[in-house]
Each structure stands twice: as structure tokens, then as C-alpha cells.
Amino acid sequence: MSVMTRRNAFYAQSGGVSAVINASACGVLQTVRQHSDRIAKVYAGRNGIIGALTEDLIDTSSESEFAIAALKYTPGAAFGSCRYKLGSLHEHRAQYERLIEVFRAYDVGYFFYNGGGDSQDTAHKVSQISAELGEPIVCIGIPKTVDNDLAITDCSPGFGSAAKYLATSLREAAFDLAAMSRSSTQVFVLEVMGRHAGWTTAACALAAEREGDAPHVLLMPEVVFSEDRFLAKVNHAFRRSGNCVIAASEGIKSPDGQFLSAGAQDAFGHAQLGGVAPIITNLIGDKLGLKCHWAVPDYLQRSARHIASETDVEQAYAVGRAAVEFAIGGRTAVMAAIRRISDTPYRWDIVEAPLSAVANQEKLLPPDFISADGFGITEAARRYLAPLIVGESYPPFRDGLPDYVKLRNAIVPRKLSNTFAV
Amino acid sequence: MSVMTRRNAFYAQSGGVSAVINASACGVLQTVRQHSDRIAKVYAGRNGIIGALTEDLIDTSSESEFAIAALKYTPGAAFGSCRYKLGSLHEHRAQYERLIEVFRAYDVGYFFYNGGGDSQDTAHKVSQISAELGEPIVCIGIPKTVDNDLAITDCSPGFGSAAKYLATSLREAAFDLAAMSRSSTQVFVLEVMGRHAGWTTAACALAAEREGDAPHVLLMPEVVFSEDRFLAKVNHAFRRSGNCVIAASEGIKSPDGQFLSAGAQDAFGHAQLGGVAPIITNLIGDKLGLKCHWAVPDYLQRSARHIASETDVEQAYAVGRAAVEFAIGGRTAVMAAIRRISDTPYRWDIVEAPLSAVANQEKLLPPDFISADGFGITEAARRYLAPLIVGESYPPFRDGLPDYVKLRNAIVPRKLSNTFAV
Questions:
Q1: Which residues, 6+ apart, have CB-to-CB distance to B374 below 8 Å?
Q2: pLDDT digits (tens, 9 = 90+) for A13-51
Q3: Which of A24, A176, A204, A270 to mutate to test the interface with B (most CBs of B within 10 A)?
Q4: Which residue from A83, A294, A303 is facing B184, i.e. has the nearest CB?
Q5: Beta bridge mates, B338
Q6: CA distance between the termini of chain A
Q7: 10 Å Cβ neighbour count for A235?
Q8: What pTM, to 2 d.p., does this model score?
Q9: Cβ A304–B169 below 8 Å, yes or no?
């Protein structure tokens, strides 16, 4: 029997945060503490991978058991996240070499990276270069994205809670609108996050229990926006129901391929969106003469831990736990992926997905999830979506508000003499 | 002992709805059912007072006990509400005579009107004209407004739940922002409803537990917006905390008295607002060069029954119950008002307030609730606000979503031959 080496781990959170990415952190940290014979410390990167590049590390061993457990019900990213995409190995080799340098200095043998498609790509590249440099580091990806656009995994932690928040909020706003539409607002537009994939917008349809229930119109980025067809659909819904509720993705595009709401770009080169709802609203007011209200929940939808999906929380925890188990089981260059075993009853487990297959992929709504007219979802989509929002997982409350944890996030004294600019 | 006359009641919901106005309806209907010796049926106006004017009545006696009980956890207005203000007695006497005509036709001896300041004014006028016409009708007001701007009553049902939703959402978004601000969004602006009164915006401050916590800046309509002072405040907060969270009322005005976001008018002649957040955001981006996100929850904040304040739900129910008890106790021309007995422990009861004193009043934030710099609240405000959001009152969930009730809302066959246009 070989003597096991006890090494440290590095964990970082990346990209837009969610209501449950800290539940994954909880899964990682609690599982590591159960395997202290194999993994000594977990260093967390302050503000994601930037923390590794700048040697700005957090010693998670100084956090109490209570604080670690509280991560399971705390939104945001407890160690800080970032929008910072490492470039190609070829052109930005210095970044990767810097990561290896920092990991070597802290005897890091395990790299856990918790994020979306870009992050899985980074984890993959770190795995490649560490092997190339003869200092192999176990690299495990942990999925996270409210957009649900990660490949291979059946769904992504963060999505189920955003979906539950959106469907709940839309149902509630629809009750409001129905009460007011006789003499006031007739149309309500809810703007939903989701750059290219319409999963979150599609999830709004779960608010409808019966034919004719809100939402009456979905605008998903997978379907090119046609003004005429859209206005006809809204008018039809309004004539039939006396009001009309619309869920519109921030990422819908006009026939010329432009975002309806043009905007700045973020650090990843992705378009920075927001503001589709007022545009849609003005259109309906001008062309149909209907009185509209609109809402843009923005960050509220991805941080609403108070209405998180219990299924999502459990899956977020499970991928964190599985990542550690894969690592100590000798696996590397894989992501902990959720596999669906059955819809009804909903059953799932965690499997390995090669990082190479997940990296930089973007999973859009499949055509058979979108209704024939492009403004709704199919029964197949509903079967897929329905179990992901099931179960409530309320945080504790104190003085009427969720009692979330803020970690100590103790600074680790730097060991390296050189610095690295990001 | 006098023989009590058994007559019918009319109940209507008015104005913008809330998470708990149906809890007041529940209080009315359950209490009436306990006093069936005095009140036979409760007719509800479909879409508020419009239902009375147009003889479009709902027979609430056809609703099951279960459905009535479910109103306590269902947002919106179960019978429909309206934005329809009856004019002055002098100029619009026909409207009031029509109400009396309809009430006479249905043997309505009790008028319960559930709404804001305008509605209390209507109830007051109905009381006056019914006496004048020799057909006295017992008129009782039931308070409701998320804006919390009703006079006399210590707070208004609907406000506590909106406050809890806003403070919770802001705290969650602040966790999100804090995680991202190193490399992405630096400022977050939450736009809050509230036409003239800053109660809802002030309530956002409850999200802060310690000095320096979000929100860092409040923009309340009671304080004239000064661009220079605002930008200096944001810059200071950002330099100190590394990010800045702002809660901005839709009703903030520039020094010339104009709403920052000008817009159309609603049926009551009130300005129709919305869209302050993007304006504030653009200003900060242009002048301070900070990257901003903004959210406009709009109807979500007043219909978020899933995160209602238990205190608010209980008060909403209590004013509905008290309204019936006042009526059968021989009181008229009063509103059921909440009286605060103590802050800590929070104790309250229900008292009568004369409709004449409540009608058309608007209670703004008192000066001693606003901090010296105008961008925050005082300890006095915090003592007032804190108990109103305490307690959770979750609705039942089914398939992952709140299981709200839709009433049968059975039509009552019309008795009158003439119609009335609204």
C-alpha cells in the first residue's frame, strides 16, 4: 500500500454568483475536513482566481464549523468572485505559470474551481500545464451558473433557485396585474437574466398551472424577435385574458442579430445587458395602446437565497462534496456533473464529466423545448424544469431578515517576493 | 332589548394591491361568518368600487371556508381592485347616489372599503350622503397601502411585507455585489416604489446590521435630490467599502420640483413613475466612472407574499376583523387603525380613527427619521421600522411554488334595470 501524501487544496469561486455557490463551498470544506488525512488546508482565493494570481489567499481553516455550515444558506460568494478570464495557454502562458508558482509555494496539490464554462476551461488548462511542468495538480471543476448553460451536467447549481425565484415572482406579479387590469395596468413585463440561453426565461412558464395562466408570452434568446408576431401574440393574449404577462430575456435579438438592448461589454468580452423590459414596454404602449408596467430584478434573481430551491441547494452541496471525493479518489481534469436518472420521481446522482468536454461549451434550449410559435415551452421542457424548483430551503431569520454569515476571511501572509499584476 | 336588523354588507378593495390586502378580506369574511345573526351576506365589488357602480357584484357566501382561509396567504386582490377615484360630492353627486341605489337594491347596510387615503375619503363621503338621503349605511374603512402614508394609523397593512421584501432583497443583492466588485460591478441601485413618501426606501436601511453595511445611500422623496452631494456621498461610500449600494425612491425630485423620472399620469391624477434607477446609474457611470447594475422590482415588491412579514399579515387580518366588530358595535365613519403601544417588546392594538381625519391625508417621513445628511435614517426611524418586518408567514407550496387561491367569484344576477358608465 502506497503512502498517501497530504497536501493542501485551493478553492475559488468564479463568475456571476448565485444563491447556492456557497452551498458548494460548504460541500467542499466540510468534506475536506472529513478527509484531513489527505488534504491539510483549503486556501480560498480572495475574489476568485485573482486571489491565486496575486497571492491573496484566505485560510479557511480559521473558520468555525458553524460558519462553514452557514455557507449552505448564504448567497453571494463568501470568498469573493471575479469576472476574470485567463487567456489561451499559448498567448497568456505567464498567467498559468504564475498559478503553478503560487500553488507550489503553498504545497497546493488540489485545485477546485467553482464556476461556469469559462472556469471549467481554466481548470482544464491548469491541469494541462501542471502536467507539462511536471508538477501535476489534481484539477476538479464544480459547476455553477444561474444561466444553466453548462454542457454535460443535467442542470447547473444556481439555476433551480433562480428559476424558483422567477416563477414565484412572476406568479405573484400576475395576481397583482389581474387585480388591477380593469382600470389600470394591462401588461406586465419581467426582464430575465440570461445572455444567450433561455433557460431562466423558460422557467418562468412554471408559474402557469393551467392553459391561459400567466406568463402568456416568453421571449427567449434562442428565438429571433419579430415585432409583428410578438405584438399579435400580446394582443391575442390580452383580448383573451384581459391582461398579459411577458417574461423577456435580456438577450433577445432582432432579426439583424443585434441585442434589442445594446450595451457595454464585461471583462469576459460578453455584452453587458439590461433594459429590454422598458424597450418592450414602450413598443406595446405605442403600437397596442396598452398600459404597461415592467420589472428588472437583476441581481435579486441570482441572490434570492430566501426562496432557494431545496433541490438546487442539495445539488450544489453534492457537487462540492463529490469534487473532493473525486480528487482523493485519484481523478483529475473532471467536473462533478449532475446526472438525471428519472423525471418522476425525480432522481439524480453525481458523475464525472471530462473538463475538456465541458470547457467553453454553451448549452442552449433544445428546439423541442420551445413551443411551435416560439413564445412558450413544450411539455418536454416542463418535465425537465419542474423538479428543479421543488422544495423550500429557508435560511434562518433574525429580526425579520435572513441571518446570513460573513466569514472572517483571514489573510494568509505572503510567501513569494514577486507580485503579479491582473 | 332592541331587535337587531340583519342586513347585507358590501366589501371592496381599492388602489394598488399588496401582499396582505387579502388577509384583511379574510378577516372581514371570517368575522362576518361568526356574526351571521347581524350580517347576512357579504357582496364584494368586482374590481373595487367599480363593481358597486356597475352592479357587478360577487357573492362571497359561495366561497368555501377553505378558500376564505386561503386568502390570508394569497397576494393580489381576490375580488379585483381598481384605480378609480370618486370625485367631490358636489360635482359628482350622481356617483354617490348610484352607490346608494345599488346598496339599497341589495339591502346593504354595511360598507367596508379597503384601501389608502383616497378610499378612506370615499368611505367618508358615502357615510355623509347615506345619512343625507335618510338611508344611513355603516361605513368602515380598512387601511391598506405599501406606501405606509396613511394618517393616524401607526402603520398600514402591506407596508411591513414590502419592507421585509425590500430589506431582504437588498441584503442579498449586497452580498452579490460585495463578491463581484473587485473585478466587475461596483455600484448597485435598487429602485423602490413610493410616490411621495419615503417609508419603503427608508425600510431598505434595515438590511444594514453594522455601520458601513449596505445600503450606503438612500434617496428618499422627502429630500430634494442634489446631484453634487449625491455623487460625493456615493464616491465616499465606494472608497470606504469598495462598493456602494443605493436604494432610490421612484419619487425623488430635482431642485426644480420635477420628478427625476417624468412620466404619464394614472387615473387618480398621480404621476406614473418608474425608471429612476437607470437614470441614477447613468449619472454615476458618467461622473464617477463606476460600473453599475440596477434593479426595478416594481410589482414584485408589493405582491411578494412568499416573504411577507408575519406582523403585517396579522395586522392586516386584525383590521379586517376589527372593521366588522366596529360595524356591528354600532360605529360608523371610522377606520380600523393600528395603534403602537410599545416598541420593545412590540405591542399594538386596533383602535378607531375618524374617516374625516384620515381621508386624503398623506403621512410623509418625519424630519427626525431622516439622518442629518439626508441619505440615511435615524435610530428613531429604525426603532419604528424594525418590528414591522418581524416574523415569517410562508404560504403553502405545491410543486415548488406558492399555492395561492383563486376564488370562484360567482356573479350575482343584476336587479337594477338601469346601468351606470364608469
A1: B220, B223, B229
A2: 999 999 999 999 999 999 999 999 999 999 999 999 999
A3: A176
A4: A83
A5: B350
A6: 44
A7: 15
A8: 0.96
A9: yes
